[in-house]
Amino acid sequence: MRAWLLIIGLLSSTLLQAAPGVDAFTVASDGEGGQTYTLTIQILLFMTALTLLPGALMMMTSFARIIIVLAILRQALGTQNTPSNQILIGLALFLTLFIMMPVFTEVNEVALQPYLAEEMNATQALQAASEPVKSFMIAQTREDDLALFARIGDFSELAEPDDVPFSLLLPSFATSELKTGFQIGFLLFIPFLIIDIVVASILMSMGMMMLSPMIISLPFKIMLFVLIDGWALVFGTLAASFQL
């Protein structure tokens, strides 16, 4: 028995020594002054980038502005949790895909397809893909927000939009989207607020102080919103608010 165990151990060690190892990390020159990495490292970097995808979707696209406006609209209607959070997120997601489709199409043409055809490496494809996204973000970013973060971060040499780095553009774009979203939400809130004030005044004049004005005003606000085709107006306004 011991002899068999010894033979098996010798064979196993021989096979392990003979088996070629797989390099965990290798770097090769691409012939153009750049570097390429092994497929294992590329897959690792890709899986790491996927974890940042939700944050990029929210803060580098039109998603933030849309979800803010829809949330304020629901609050103005006074419908509590109708539509639900899942429905609002779904609406914001599909409207974001509609608005961002020209950008995604350009990214596919200038970066993804050449990379799949092996006409450029991963670094070049990433650089090419960032240009359409950067152009979209700069078009939506306010100059005062960009100047604010440029002053905080001590970015002095910014002669052209192409000189703006992503580290400066990301917080500036996010701040601009928050401002724009709240401005649109404020304009949507005013008509429903007027209805609430009118209903509350009528109830007070009738001495019905124990009756909540929200119960009476809710049907009128829903009726007004339906009669003016509110959803189409809101979605159309949101889509038109982006400078494509």
Automatic annotation (TrEMBL):
Listed Pfam families: FliP (PF00813)
Location in or out of the cell: Cell membrane; Bacterial flagellum basal body
This protein's record includes keyword Transport: yes
GO BP term, pick one: protein secretion
Membrane-spanning segments: 40-73, 85-104, 184-210, 222-242
Keyword tags: Bacterial flagellum, Bacterial flagellum biogenesis, Bacterial flagellum protein export, Cell membrane, Cell projection, Cilium, Flagellum, Membrane, Protein transport, Signal, Transmembrane, Transmembrane helix, Transport
Chief localisation class: membrane
Signal peptide: 1-18
DNA repair recorded as keyword: no
Domain of life: Bacteria
Membrane topology, record value: Multi-pass membrane protein
Gene Ontology CC terms: bacterial-type flagellum basal body; plasma membrane
Family: Belongs to the FliP/MopC/SpaP family.
Purpose of the protein: Plays a role in the flagellum-specific transport system.
Official protein name in the record: Flagellar biosynthetic protein FliP
Species annotation: Candidatus Thiodiazotropha endolucinida
Lineage: Bacteria, Pseudomonadati, Pseudomonadota, Gammaproteobacteria, Chromatiales
Underlying gene: fliP
